[in-house]
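User: Predict the structure for this protein chain, please.
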Amino acid sequence: MQAVILAAGEGTRLRPLTLSRPKALVPVANTPILKYVIDALLANGIREIIVVVGYRKEHVIRYLNESNLPVRVVYQENQLGTAHALRCAEPYLQDRFLLLAGDNYIDAASIARIMNERNAILVTDHPSPTNFGVVIEREGLVREIREKPTTPDSRIVSTGVYALDRSFFKYAVGPEVPHAIQAMIRDGGRVVPVQAVDWQDAINPWDLLELNSKLLGRIDAQRAGTISRSSKLYGLIRIGKGSEIGPNTYIHGPVVIGEACTIGPNCVIMPNTSIGSRVTIEPLSYVAHSLVMDDVVIGSHSRVIDAVVGEGCRLADHTATWTAESVFEREKEGFQKASFGAVLGDRVCSAPFTILKNCIIGNNASIQAGNSTVTGVIPDDAVVI
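Assistant: Here is the predicted structure, written as structure tokens:
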């Protein structure tokens, strides 16, 4: 059995977080999404894995090389759709194969359900089917896939995981795989829907918080580094090598902390928080239900809740996020209502006493006006004074 993982897309709907990295490498619970997909395949004994790269390909290739994962890399020169990406892998495919998205979480149990089928789509029920391909079933077979309909007739959606064989390529002449599936069905092909056990996609950047919370509940507990005797740690917690947990710090899992971090003293880290490597959280700060990437500094007396914090951010002392609900206009998705504290791209800087209220701040933006409240969408490289 072979598998093809598509990791070539730009992930524009997850901006600003995907400007400097492909969506497949966005870390969730301190692990790139792509790694979860590969692990699910390996758990089912699938070792012939092809990863199709394109956008920011050097990042994916470097990660795969450093992780020593058993994959073949194929390059899609221009991002011309999922079917085009699959055709890039065609010379290496023998007969039956799985096709998966490298930027959606999938579990091993779902792979086990579909891997022995000849032509099948992994499907799931979703509360917001208009963001996906809606699958119309009749008599146990897939009859139609309707891409992002405004008025869906079903809540059953495609997860983007397929079991196929080489005969599929005669239909994969257009840009997208769902169109090819539809052509195969019109030609009399039999396509079976298979219910997923666990699958999740992050459509918008704030969706990463839900996915992060889910995957943190599955981490392996491990406490490396140096932990002060006066600190209090409860629940499922993983702390990486070289990290230091200062005196009187309270951590309540599920929480993951990467390597070479400095936390505290007198900090509080609450459940559903992931903290990357080389992160500094200065004294008397509080972090909860957040995803903090590598090389971040959170100043003293800060309060970060319901936030996604990109790599290399520098938040000065007394920075706070404020969770509220607003409507955001998102590319290809129209207007989306969302409740969260803040989404910060890479290398965002804030001045002391800044309140980040339900805002999205672009990469390299600088909030220079202290004692201020920032709301809405701030573009890349902006300076707020």
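The mean pLDDT is 91.
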